[in-house]
Design brief:
Family (chains A, B): Belongs to the class-II aminoacyl-tRNA synthetase family.
Strand content of chain A: 15-25%
Oligomer: homodimer
Largest interface: A-B, 103 and 103 residues
CATH superfamily of the largest domain in chain A: Bira Bifunctional Protein, Domain 2
Helix content of chain A: 40-55%
Keywords (chains A, B): Aminoacyl-tRNA synthetase, ATP-binding, Cytoplasm, Ligase, Nucleotide-binding, Protein biosynthesis
Subcellular location (chains A, B): Cytoplasm
Catalytic activity (chains A, B): tRNA(His) + L-histidine + ATP = L-histidyl-tRNA(His) + AMP + diphosphate + H(+)
Largest sheet of chain A: 8 strands, mixed
CATH class of the largest domain in chain A: Alpha Beta
CATH architecture of the largest domain in chain A: 2-Layer Sandwich
Number of strands of chain A: 16
GO molecular function (chains A, B): ATP binding; histidine-tRNA ligase activity
């Protein structure tokens, strides 16, 4: 049997180059998470469907990947079940699904381990999730999520630390031109009240979430269609067109005593001594997710084609659905695929992110090969990533291997090199070549690695 | 809705402590793979079922996790399909499955990317796989595999490098008492011929694979049941009871000119200058997997309750099933779960593997908290993993947080500390406490991290 193999739609292989670049990003993020005291967690790909179902709305439920029960899965069904259709039938032949995000499994973990976890609990989680979405450019059916959450405290230090972490990650990645916008759910709530549409903040959020894309006229049109009165939309209009919003003006608009305003003010007070760079209050930032109840934030890189690359917010009831109510926390995540695209677009990946092997030893006869083998072990003992081409092959073949694998140095030994107990060291980028002693080569390669 | 959540049978969460210990092992393995020129690859969790099916034997096919097609999956079925039973029906409602190992997806990747890969291609892959096996102690339905393969060369340097890599990994892990046993499929073939049972090496392998567990008498009994003649088993018997096997004796037994013997000799010649420690020729090592055609090897840690922790071998046709025949290669893998258990049993995990945060700042009033917040940023700027307890809470609560999170140092500031622009540094292990200046604390914590 021989068939031309293919990948499932919406999934990807990550070959060495993509892996190196993804790891470059993830190592930086992981390093910052750890510096701030976040600890790693991994949960299974498979969850029981009763853990997943009902957590992401009707649309989300439709996008869950379900796993067929093992063995004779039809034995628990009847023809009448079959005739009842796919939805009913699925519930009989499938008990497990692939996780849809990292938040629900985290909530499940917290509840199941509540007695051994010490609060506040800071965890990060970098794992793939699966959604049976229509694949399109930049949207995949299997993709990595990269989350950090603190639960068990409502201290606004957490909000400040999120801002610090984002700035530290972007600084390390070399991304300079970006903005972190902050808002608060209670401010959105107060806006709804102030324009005479109390309790309608979800509809308000959905509409103004599109402001960047469709403009203020269309937002007002949508709100009108959703039953907002002309008076409400006309009171809202000045806000939509005000690009110089600040906390004081907003307080005038919604009235004093709003806890959203005082929360954001406190967060700003906490970070002020480290500078307010990249941080903006945006009373119209909405973010879709309905479980946020406090501060919300979103990060955009300016002047690139990619949208939001990070975001999150505070919630006050992460685990209630699993029987542990009232646990406050804050979570945020980095969009790794999008950050990857931003880094590509801005050419920010360093050359070294794609260097695996520092030196390749090549040999053109058996004698030189044995001589090379001996030095190979010395190089590795010195901690240098090194290879010996495994066969005595033609020069072209061996050099092409170094070239394709992006190996910066090639070592060759002929009669004269062996006589002098050394190798010719060829710099593959400059083309320069020099006969050096073994110890000089080791020194050179170590300092190259240090300089990367 | 509130329900008590649970995990699917045979799956596990990895909390911070397990993650830290697993990462300790994986970082060492990854570091050695990279030093030897192996490059990372990741493939999707989901594969098309036609890629997976038929690659692992009938039993393996039964253990594949199948994913239910999305949407109205029954629309492509009829009642007659339903009556045909689970096996037929599954093929109509499921097109994708979860990967069962890393070898088949690797073969698929090589075939799909054959024109951009430069041979020899060295890749490592550390990812979970899924098997609908009966869960039992040490056997999971979702578990990590950790593979390294070289394809595109039949150089025996690869075999030598596998031995070096294993020794380097075990050395770094601190495992001292272990043995790497080596054999060759052509030697097993020749044994079958020498005892008058040519072509029956698979049955022979299956039986002698159990030698360690059931003893030589039972192996012979099993072979007899499988149709081996009394003459064959009596010729085999001395081999089964010979614990001092070596290449020369084996050559006498099967006759000269066997390429298995010469391959193993060459591998030994390649590694001899680095010492023969931990390496043994074992003519009865069989290993189950049928696609091996050359050298095979297996690693056991001595005097622990865990079995084989690593193994692999050479194959000469990895990708033929996907239409690219004749590609020789060698692969091996580490059993991460088992290595974890060995490390636990031998108490080899260093204390530092479970340290996330080096210092926690605690504060008992708002003034001290603000003072601590300022220093927190200085600590992090110096690269120190540090936290400030997010609230002004009781001493007991804050110290217990440090304790449970295994944080080695706690910083406290009262009136006198703040006057001297310092903190009291408490060593949580020794209980010692000392008032130090901020710069002395930074120096102390950096040197502690370096010493870990």
């Amino acid at each position: 049997m021989s068939s031309k193999p293919s990948l499932p739609k919406g999934t990807r292989d990550f070959g060495p180059e993509e892996m190196a670049r993804r790891n470059y990003i993830l190592d930086i993020i992981r390093g910052v998470f750890r510096k701030f005291g976040f600890m790693p967690l991994e949960t299974p790909a498979m969850e029981n469907l009763d853990v997943l179902t009902g957590k992401y709305g009707d649309e989300g439920d439709q996008l869950l990947y379900k796993i067929l029960n093992s063995g004779d899965f039809l034995s628990r069904t009847t023809e009448s079940d079959y005739r009842d259709g796919s939805r009913h039938f699925a519930s009989l032949i499938s008990e497990k699904g692939l996780k849809y995000d990292l938040t629900v499994p985290f909530a499940r973990y917290v509840v199941m381990n509540q007695h051994k976890i010490s609060m506040p609990f800071k965890r990060y989680q970098i794992q793939p999730v699966w959604r049976a979405d229509r694949p399109q450019r930049g949207r995949y059916r299997e993709f990595q999520q990269c989350d950090a959450d603190v639960v068990g405290t409502d201290s606004l230090l957490c909000e400040a630390e999120v801002i610090w972490m984002i700035r530290e990650v972007f600084n390390a990645l070399g991304i300079i031109d970006y903005s972190i916008r902050i808002n608060h759910r209670k401010i959105l709530q107060a806006i709804a009240e102030a324009i005479g549409a109390p309790g309608k903040e979800s509809e308000l959020c959905v509409a103004i979430d599109k402001l960047d894309k469709i403009g203020s006229e269309k937002v007002i049109q949508e709100l009108t269609e959703r039953g907002f009165t002309a008076e409400s939309t006309s009171r809202l209009k000045p806000l939509l067109n005000d690009s110089s919003a600040n906390l004081d003006k907003m307080e005038q608009f919604i009235g004093s005593g709003n806890s959203g305003i005082s929360d954001v003010r406190e967060v700003f007070d906490l970070i002020r001594s480290s500078g307010m760079d990249h941080v903006d209050f945006d009373p119209l930032l909405a973010r879709g997710l309905s479980y946020y109840t406090g501060c919300i934030f979103e990060v955009k890189v300016n002047n690139v084609s990619v949208g939001s690359v990070s975001g999150g917010g505070r919630y006050d009831d992460l685990t209630g659905v699993f029987g542990l109510p009232g646990l406050s926390g804050i979570g945020f995540s980095f969009g790794v695929d999008r950050l990857y695209d931003v880094m590509e677009e801005l050419s920010l990946f360093p050359e070294s992110a794609n260097t695996f092997t520092t030196a390749l030893i090549v040999a053109f006869d058996q004698n030189a090969w044995s001589y090379g083998l001996e030095f190979l072990r010395e190089l590795r003992t010195a901690g240098i990533h090194a290879e010996l081409y495994p066969e005595v092959a033609k020069a072209k073949k061996q050099f092409s291997y170094a070239d394709k694998k992006n190996i910066p140095f090639v070592l060759v030994a002929g009669e004269s090199e062996m006589e002098k107990d050394g190798f010719s060291l060829k710099n593959m980028k400059s083309g320069e070549q020099e006969l050096l002693s073994k110890s000089a080569i080791i020194e050179h390669l170590i300092s190259f690695n240090g300089a990367q």
